[in-house]
Amino acid sequence: MKMVKSLILGSAAALVAVGGAQAADLPVKAKAVEYVKVCSLYGPGFYYIPGTDTCIKLGGYLRVDVLANTNSDHTGNTSGAGGANNRFTNGYTWRSREDLNIDTRTATEYGVVRTFFDATFSWTTDNYAGLGNGSTVYSPIGTSAAPNNAGSGNVAAGTVGVYYAFIQFAGFTIGKAVSQFSAPWANYPGNSYDGLVGGGGTITGVNQFTYTAQFGNGVSLSLSAQDQTAYYQAGVVNLGAPVTFGVPGNTNVFGISDYAGTIAPDLVAMLRVDQAWGLFQASFAAHNNHAAYYGGTELTGHPDDKWGWAGALALSIKNIPTGPGDTINLQGVYTNGATRYNIQDLAGSAGGNTIFGGTNVPGAYQSIGFGIAPDSIFVTGGQQQLITTYGFRGAYVHNWNPNWNTSIYGAWAQVNYNSTAKGYICGPAGNGVGGSLSNFFGAGSALTSCNPDYSIAQLGTQTQWTPVKNLTFSADFTYTRLDQSFAGTVAFPGSPTIGKPGAIYELKDQNTYMLLLRAQRNW
User: Fold this and answer.
1) How is it placed in the membrane, per its record (predicted)?
2) Could you tell me the sign of the dihedral formed by the alpha carbons of 414, 77, 507, 247, in that order?
3) Is the pTM of this model over 0.85?
4) Which of 82, 367, 431, 374 is nearest to 255 (CA)?
5) Domain 34-522 is in which class?
6) Distances in Å between the alpha carbon of 51 and those of 39, 46, 108?
7) Is the pLDDT of residue 22 over 50?
């Protein structure tokens, strides 16, 4: 018995050992793989981020532009080397750009939480600047006379731009997005040209805190506080400290921009009706003009703040009888001390127009046209004088067939100074003698009219061909006219950076034009 018992126990132990060895050889069950799943809640292109209930969509485009007769992409030859109309003016400018955007959305008990980010990576050719000694230096975008784009914003010898970065939740938009003041088409009622006047812009976004209420049937109301810095500051100009204002390489045209620190954001209200027939929008903005000091210290004093404002109406009519998908987009705007809501941040005339041309006046070397539109101007001991502007922009877009469309577009803006402001600039005689212009135009000037009022008119046409989905080739031609109110001749002191000599110049209206050729692949 004892022997049998030992045999049974030994056999059992052997079976356990063999079973353990076999179990060790069996494959271990792998953890389930998280596969990317399509998210159909928010339209095509969204996928669930593995392990979360958040959906993400990647998008963007690759764009190549070639532009004729301009030093910029894509605002025209209204100032700087482009406006010189000489050997410093580019026959062409080239840009290659990649855009990347990231859109995330998560459904919550309070509604959808959305984040959106958009950035661009660009390489843009620019122009050469004169050094006043017979040599030049390359002056690429984002740099200051530095070779190979090795300056501010440099990314692999190019530039990066952060356009949008915002959160949307429960009706709020918080972050950098297009201003609520702008119509949905912003700078582009039917074109690719960036520089149209006649309405709001901020295609590259502006920091804001916005609440939008939806009333149903396409009716909404947005109330917004947005950062005015840079994008909505046209200039609070101190005439007592003259410096370059639109003329490179020179001092003392009108005065110097004299902003103090930020004190109040711009306040925007926008009412929109968006329905099948089209769209109607009314926008209003209040803009605080906060100046620094008359001189270099607190002891010199300062002018009081002044609030400016802007109002705009926009109308879009869809599917008009001329063809399927044809549209008409129209917009009108009025501003007082809030110029950027008309002459927007990408308009070539935003920083002031200075365009050179030919002349038939005996004794004059060439002609020159000025157009400068700040928010306000002031003199030492005086108060801010707000600048008034008004204008419009619009376009008609016709679709020939699903692959071809053509648009005709135009814009216009008028800039007016009040009588006090004109006295500050031109002097009591209204001829530039004794006013701030006397600091700039030297002996030999013979102004027959000193009037800083001016207008900008633009007319263009664009044709697009889309041979396959998301691939478009376009050609966009734009004509711009500066109609200024100065007359006579001036002793212009010259501008070495663009090769202009000190000489007598006729004050005259000016014209310029440009052509954009573009290839773009959206993804």
Assistant:
1) Multi-pass membrane protein
2) positive
3) yes
4) 374
5) mainly beta
6) 13, 15, 16
7) no
- Cα–Cα distance between 466 and 396 in angstroms, integer? 19
Share of residues in the chain with pLDDT > 90 (%): 68
pLDDT per position as a tens digit, 59-86: 999 999 999 999 888 787 888 888 999 9
Tell me the HSE value of 330 on the side-chain side, using a 13 A CA sphere: 8
Structure-block tokens of residue 93: 């400018």
Residues in the chain: 523
Domains of the chain, by residue range, sit at: 34-522
* Residues contacting residue 382 through CB under 8 Å, at least 6 positions apart: 303, 424
Which segments of 69-124 are extended strands (E)? 92-108, 111-124
Nearest-10 Cα torsion for 496, 499, 502, 503: -170
CA atoms within a 13 Å half-sphere pointing along the CA-CB vector of 117: 7
Residue 32 has pLDDT above 70, yes or no: no
CA 139/CA 82 separation, integer angstroms: 13
Picking from 276, 510, 235, 518, the residue whose alpha carbon sits closest to that of residue 389 is: 235
Tokens in use for 213? 């209420």
Q: Specify the pLDDT at position 448.
A: 87
Q: What average pLDDT does the structure give for the chain? A: 87
% of residues, the chain, pLDDT over 70: 85
CA distance linking residue 347 with residue 201, whole number of Å: 9
